[in-house]
């Protein structure tokens, strides 16, 4: 190490604020003239010393260090409309470490003579940087400059440092502030209203919550569940015919997919039986299919759910890691556009160093012009998600590898030629009835070549068939069917629904879904609203419907969007939010007793359900419940008929960890199973049947 490096803290320096420690290291590495910044640590807070045209100190935040808090007063009343910004450790119990963090940054700020905000360039990042510059660095928000970048690659970071924006992005900051303030106003008032109502009625303490976006989202799920529960399946019939053509069997569908009466279906079968088919017509259609558009966060999440089964939240986390390792561009974007400045050719050339992509990259590079098939959506802050061209510096985990591959292939596919598909529909007549035989085939792969593992195409090849030929009918099949209710949402389709309805933001939707799970309002991957979820929505619908109104939520969301573009003032949005909330809360207060009773009952029912394991296998009429012995305080399974004196069945339970109904039955003996979860161990299913043939195997 050279002499000058040692003393760089002696002189003045530029303080660069980043959003997270990983980003700080990347940025310091990119900016240091030797690529070897010095890592420092103070009271557990890491930061980096780098040398360039002058000394640089790169200090990370830990996500948000500041938050909205109630200005004065206790927790046990509502409405509350006065708030202020304060360090998170003052407001949240699990944010203690933010205190040292703020203190270390404040200290570093004292000797700095210039400030640069290099947090992620979006609403949250801009707000994080702003709060630190304003509060921790003592009003440096007006003198600080802003680095703007979409990837953490060396070249882009250097450019962002050399040509920073002269000041912070105040429109984004205003939008971020407003969003946090509005969410706080809703969250604190509604959650307090719910919790206080329930606690005053029952005298017991339970935390309930709902938020501005949580409520409407839960309403979608409850609505769908209600449709499913009310659904009455109607029977219908369909007919398929099997024909032999050139030695192979082909299945054709009857012209009507839906036959309402069984007798009618049988009559058709009767008329066709024993006759030959005649090829009436062969219709061939060619169809050009354009390449897919570049990934925005939503479409990446959808695709990763479809192919890998990852929840939107998980995909978001993986993409974030890939971004921090400079493998892909910033993932929290809603853009479907790739501007030429990212340099398509350079990225493809770099990707070509990876064997798996070599041929495809050179195929694209051979094209005279590279033009991505862009989508409509734009994002003022970032382009669509694309690979940087960097190859992994360490072995990626399987999920990381998959998501990276998906991003790389999607990027290449958007430059591909259109694919050409052919569909063939053969109409076969039997005694005046028509059957359709369908074929599908890709004639020209085009972009599909690049995206192949992520395309679901079933090819059905048909032999050459000419009009007028006859074909022997081998078999007729009548199928008895029932209409189906609409499908349950999964985390991915729910996210899409939120997107379409204009509620939440790309940064928050996945978290909101997670919160609904954590509150016990929903369960299972095919999302099932729990009774508690149902009750909460029902109570809100009856007593303060505004809280779950999709329309109100979307309108507020649109207003907040406009702040980003300087077309709306933060103050007016806040006033509107308070105007919306006030009457809701008044309504709520008036009905507090009713709401409290309804909520308390709902909570009690939910708690009871958590203890019901299933039917008692001994008496068959009682239910097995998790109970606690008065004498020993030990828990066990007992039959509810014990209280009637008709069944004394009981089974021991593990005393450690938590025990919940598994809602599944033992595959060997059919008894209900219990789910046991002990800290730091994998949860397992327990069959408590002492005579179970699988005993000892689990
Ligand atoms: Zn029993
Ligand atoms: Zn068993």
Give an account of the 3D structure:
By secondary structure, the chain is of the alpha+beta class. It has 5 domains: 140 residues, 3-Layer(aba) Sandwich (Rossmann fold); 170 residues, Topoisomerase I, domain 2; 121 residues, Topoisomerase I, domain 3; 117 residues, Orthogonal Bundle (Topoisomerase I, domain 4); 87 residues, no CATH class. 38% of the residues lie in helices and 21% in strands. The strands form 6 sheets. Strands 14-11-12-13-10-9-15 form a 7-stranded antiparallel sheet, with helices on one face. Strands 2-3-4-1-7-8 form a 6-stranded mixed sheet, with helices on both faces. Strands 18-19-20-21 form a 4-stranded antiparallel sheet, with no helix packed on it. Helix 5 links the parallel strand 7 and strand 8. Helix 7 runs antiparallel to helix 19 and helix 7 packs across helix 21. The mean pLDDT is 92.
């Amino acid at each position: 190490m050279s002499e000058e490096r040692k003393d760089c803290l002696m002189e003045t320096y530029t303080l660069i604020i980043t959003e997270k420690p990983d980003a700080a290291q990347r940025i310091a590495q990119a900016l240091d003239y030797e690529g070897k910044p010095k890592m420092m640590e103070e009271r557990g807070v890491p930061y980096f010393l780098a040398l360039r045209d002058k000394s640089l100190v790169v200090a990370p935040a830990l996500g948000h260090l500041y938050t909205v808090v109630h200005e004065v007063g206790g927790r046990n009343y509502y409405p509350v409309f006065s708030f202020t910004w304060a360090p998170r450790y003052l407001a949240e119990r699990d944010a203690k470490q933010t205190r040292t963090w703020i203190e270390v940054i404040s200290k570093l700020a004292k000797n700095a003579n210039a400030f640069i905000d290099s947090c992620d360039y979006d609403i949250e990042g801009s707000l994080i940087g702003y709060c630190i510059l304003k509060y921790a660095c003592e009003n440096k928000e007006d003198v600080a400059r802003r680095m703007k970048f979409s990837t953490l690659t060396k070249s882009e970071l250097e450019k962002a440092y050399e040509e920073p924006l002269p000041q912070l992005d105040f429109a984004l900051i205003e939008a971020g502030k407003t969003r946090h303030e509005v969410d706080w106003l809703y969250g604190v008032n509604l959650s307090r209203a719910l919790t206080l109502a329930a606690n005053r009625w029952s005298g017991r303490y339970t935390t309930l919550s709902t938020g501005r976006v949580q409520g409407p989202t839960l309403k979608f799920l409850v609505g769908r569940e209600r449709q499913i529960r009310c659904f009455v399946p109607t029977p219908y019939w369909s007919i398929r015919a099997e024909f032999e053509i050139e030695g192979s069997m082909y299945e054709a569908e009857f012209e009507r997919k839906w036959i309402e009466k069984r007798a009618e279906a049988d009559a058709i079968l009767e008329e066709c039986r024993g006759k030959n088919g005649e090829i009436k017509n062969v219709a061939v259609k060619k169809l050009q299919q354009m390449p897919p558009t570049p990934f925005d966060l939503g479409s990446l999440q959808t695709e990763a759910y479809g192919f890998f089964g990852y929840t939107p939240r998980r995909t978001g986390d993986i993409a974030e890691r890939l971004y921090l390792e400079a493998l892909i561009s910033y993932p929290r974007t809603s853009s479907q556009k790739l501007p030429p400045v990212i340099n398509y050719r350079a990225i493809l050339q770099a990707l070509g160093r990876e064997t798996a992509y070599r041929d495809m990259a050179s195929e694209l590079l051979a094209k005279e012009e590279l033009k991505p098939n862009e989508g409509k959506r734009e994002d003022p802050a970032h382009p669509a998600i694309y690979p940087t061209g960097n190859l992994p510096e360490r072995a990626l985990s399987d999920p990381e590898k998959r998501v990276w591959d998906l991003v790389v292939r999607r990027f290449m596919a958007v430059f591909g030629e259109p694919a050409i598909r052919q569909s063939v529909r053969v109409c076969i007549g039997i005694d005046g009835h028509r059957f359709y035989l369908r074929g599908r085939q890709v004639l020209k792969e085009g972009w599909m070549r690049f995206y192949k593992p992520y395309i679901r195409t079933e090819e059905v090849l048909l032999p050459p068939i000419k009009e007028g030929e006859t074909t022997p009918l081998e078999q007729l099949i009548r199928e008895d069917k029932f209409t189906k209710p609409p499908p349950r949402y999964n985390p991915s389709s729910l996210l899409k629904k939120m997107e379409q309805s204009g509620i939440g933001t790309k940064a928050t939707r996945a978290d909101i879904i997670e919160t609904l799970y954590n509150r016990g309002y929903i369960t299972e991957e095919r999302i099932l609203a729990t009774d508690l979820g149902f009750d909460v929505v029902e109570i809100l619908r009856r007593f303060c419907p505004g809280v779950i109104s999709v329309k109100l939520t979307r309108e507020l969301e649109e207003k907040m969007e406009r702040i980003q573009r300087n077309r709306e003032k933060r103050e007016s949005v806040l006033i509107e939010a308070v105007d919306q909330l006030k009457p809701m809360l008044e309504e709520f207060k008036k009905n507090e007793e009713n709401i409290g009773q309804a909520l308390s009952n709902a909570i009690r029912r939910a708690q009871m359900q958590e203890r019901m394991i299933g039917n008692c296998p001994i008496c068959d009429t009682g239910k097995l419940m998790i109970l606690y012995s008065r004498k020993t305080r030990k828990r066990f399974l007992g039959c509810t008929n014990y209280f009637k004196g008709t069944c004394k069945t009981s089974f021991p339970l593990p005393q450690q960890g938590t025990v919940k109904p598994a809602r599944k039955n033992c595959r060997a003996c059919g008894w209900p199973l219990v789910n046991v979860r002990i800290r730091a161990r994998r949860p397992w299913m327990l069959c408590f049947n002492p005579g179970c043939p699988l005993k000892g195997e689990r």
